[in-house]
């Protein structure tokens, strides 16, 4: 049996000398076309999904998983699968179907052995972290070129190259998968999230993890920065908040019981401890109608558990926002100012929030006549100050303070897992826009990596400059151990990024053995608000180690 985390069981690689593999087909899905998406189907053979660029999802036997560059997804015969890539930016994914068969040492009567009896379990399943997407892309391109030939020797070469790809995959699986401690703690956390409505105790969770209570308490706190019971409480309150949105009409006692609390007064105390406000206050505030006049404020509002009643229609929504944001319940604001005023007058909101540069002096009195209006200065305040300011404006100051405490706790925990100083190496953050390379040295990603997580900037980074540009030659000659790019979606930006990917194989290897360059799409990573900052923080370990 394989673990659901893609980690091979003990001794699985020892059976490789008794196995052989046969590649059935390889296809390439990308923006211009190809076999993508994968429609709902039962698999007759093993399948590898290798995303080279972009991200998407796969549903396996009814369970959802993410697909993204940096991981190979291994599917098993007999599974019911359906997969697709997000329709944003560059997309590239290779799909390989193959058989894994046994190789008996001395078959006495091979003609009597049926093919069905030869199939044996492949030692990997699910998401497998890999060192470099570029290496796998080259493997797949070489296999495609050979397998498509009519020459039997070239087809034999394709099978040989497929073995090379499998060698890379099995090697990465053994080298890059989480340690046993990481695996145990992740499974314990998943157990909490799946059984949070039940009565859970430390002894029960330690038993599920298969370790002593004392050892479990220490490891969980070390991994996540809070105890297992504290995490259970936070998760329960998070679920309770989702039941308190304006469209829901649940009573407090029913919400408390649903998330695992039989004692309502105790639930009230825990809710206020986590969120900073009493449940009744939270439910009352949830009914307020708040307008996000400028799209970049949406992230801050989501942090405060506010779903705006109206927001700009042209905001570049991403999958990150869609998961938390009920777009069908939000009035899309028109581009024309006169029409916007009519929309807001009909909506009769409680508050209007905007950015100072986005509203003309002529519009200000009209907005203030509709509802109390507050404007955030993007040039003079950082994201923490903006969060505090908006919290004060809409009566959510305690929630803003509680959120920041949790953010700082999470940052401390991730710092401990990453290590410090030279162990992490030097980091260079940059954005590719057309033919221009801008160093990200001040806001957004730079604040998270350099300030909150204490990464060391590469020597070329001047943190006093907010708009520093460098040439490709300066970039490649820098002393950066890791390069993290935000890549715009236009053709010129994507072409420059492709050139960088091709050049990675010529660079000195990363000291830790991981891929030296990674990239992110422009949205939501270019936005500067508390939601995006937490998103960067949550992704830091995966981005640095090239693991997901």
Folded structure, characterized:
This protein is an alpha/beta fold and 548 residues long. Helix content is 41%, strand content 20%. It has 20 helices and 20 strands. Strands 15, 16, 17, 18, 19 and 20 form a 6-stranded mixed sheet that branches. A 5-stranded antiparallel sheet has the order 1-8-3-6-9, with helices on one face. A 4-stranded antiparallel sheet has the order 2-7-4-5, with no helix packed on it. The longest helix is centred in the N-terminal third of the chain and has 25 residues, at 152-176. The protein is globular and about 80 Å long. Mean pLDDT is 83; it is low at 1-12 and 105-119.
Give a quick precis of the structure.
By secondary structure, the chain is α/β, with parallel strands linked by helices.
Portion of residues within helices? 40-55%
Major beta sheet summary: 6 strands, mixed
DSSP helical segment count: 20
Strand tally, please? 20
Q: Which spans have pLDDT < 50 for at least 5 consecutive residues?
A: 1-12, 105-119
Measured between the Cα atoms of the first and last residue, the distance is 22 Å
Give the strand content: 15-25%
Structural class: alpha/beta
Mean pLDDT over the residues: 83
Descriptive labels:
548 residues; alpha/beta; six-stranded mixed beta sheet; five-stranded antiparallel beta sheet; 20 helices; 20 strands; globular
Q: Mind sketching the topology for me?
A:
Blueprint lengths: L18 E12 L7 E5 L3 E8 L1 E6 L2 E6 L2 E5 L4 E6 L6 E11 L12 H4 L7 E4 L3 H15 L4 H25 L3 H15 L7 H8 L3 H12 L3 H15 L9 H7 L5 H12 L3 H8 L3 E3 L5 H6 L6 E3 L6 H6 L6 E3 L3 H11 L3 E5 L7 H8 L2 E4 L6 H11 L3 H22 L7 E8 L2 E4 L5 H8 L3 E2 L10 E3 L1 H5 L5 E6 L3 H13 L13 E4 L9 H16 L3
Parallel strand pairs: 10-13, 11-12, 13-14, 15-17, 15-19, 19-20
Antiparallel strand pairs: 1-8, 2-7, 3-6, 3-8, 4-5, 4-7, 6-9, 15-16, 16-18
Helix pairs in contact: 2-3, 4-5, 5-6, 13-14, 15-16, 16-20, 17-20
């Amino acid at each position: 049996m394989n673990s659901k985390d893609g980690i091979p069981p003990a001794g699985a690689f020892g059976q490789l000398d008794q196995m052989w593999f046969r590649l059935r087909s390889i296809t390439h899905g990308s923006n211009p076309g190809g076999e993508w998406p994968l429609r709902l189907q039962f698999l007759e053979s093993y399948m590898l999904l290798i995303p080279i660029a972009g991200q998407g999802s796969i549903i396996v036997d009814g369970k959802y998983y993410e697909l993204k560059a940096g991981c190979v997804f291994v599917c098993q015969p007999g599974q019911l699968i359906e997969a697709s890539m997000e329709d944003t930016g560059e997309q590239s994914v290779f799909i390989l179907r193959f058989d894994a068969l046994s190789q008996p040492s001395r078959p006495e009567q091979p003609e009597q052995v049926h093919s069905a009896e030869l199939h044996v379990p492949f030692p990997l399943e699910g998401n497998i972290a890999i060192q470099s997407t570029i290496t796998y892309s080259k493997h797949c391109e070489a296999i495609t070129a050979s397998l498509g030939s009519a020459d039997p020797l070239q087809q034999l070469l394709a099978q040989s190259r497929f073995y090379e790809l499998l060698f890379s995959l099995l090697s990465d699986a053994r080298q890059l998968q989480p340690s046993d401690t990481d695996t145990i703690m992740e499974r314990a956390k998943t157990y909490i999230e799946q059984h949070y409505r039940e009565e859970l105790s430390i002894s029960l969770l330690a038993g599920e993890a298969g370790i002593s209570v004392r050892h479990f308490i220490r490891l969980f706190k070390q991994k996540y920065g809070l105890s297992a019971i504290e995490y259970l409480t936070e998760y329960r309150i998070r679920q309770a908040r989702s039941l308190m949105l304006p469209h829901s009409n649940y009573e407090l006692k029913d919400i408390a019981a649903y998330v695992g609390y039989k004692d309502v007064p105790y639930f009230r105390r825990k809710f206020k401890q986590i969120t900073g406000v009493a449940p009744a206050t939270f439910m009352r505030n949830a009914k307020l109608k708040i307008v996000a006049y400028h799209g970049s404020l949406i992230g801050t509002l989501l942090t405060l558990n506010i779903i705006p009643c109206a927001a700009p229609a042209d905001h570049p929504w991403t999958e990150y926002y869609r998961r938390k944001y009920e777009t069908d319940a939000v009035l899309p604001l028109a581009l024309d100012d006169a029409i916007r005023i009519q929309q807001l007058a009909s909506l009769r909101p409680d508050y209007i929030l905007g950015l100072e540069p986005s509203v003309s002096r002529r519009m200000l009195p009209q907005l203030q006549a509709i509802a109390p209006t507050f404007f955030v200065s993007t040039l003079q305040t950082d994201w923490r100050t903006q969060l505090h300011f908006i919290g004060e404006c809409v009566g959510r100051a305690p929630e803003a303070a509680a959120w920041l405490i949790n953010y700082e706790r999470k940052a401390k925990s991730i710092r401990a897992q990453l290590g410090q100083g030279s162990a992490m190496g030097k980091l260079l953050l940059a954005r590719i826009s057309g033919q221009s390379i801008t160093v990200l040295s001040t806001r957004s990603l730079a604040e998270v990596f350099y300030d909150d997580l204490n990464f060391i900037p590469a020597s070329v980074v001047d943190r006093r400059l907010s708009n520093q540009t460098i040439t490709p030659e300066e970039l490649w000659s820098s002393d950066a151990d890791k390069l993290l790019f935000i890549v715009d979606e236009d053709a010129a930006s994507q072409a420059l990024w492709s050139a960088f990917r091709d050049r990675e194989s010529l660079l000195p290897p990363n000291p830790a053995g991981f891929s030296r360059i990674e990239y992110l799409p422009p949205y939501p990573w270019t936005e500067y608000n508390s939601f995006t900052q937490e998103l960067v923080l949550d992704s830091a370990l995966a981005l640095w180690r090239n693991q997901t």
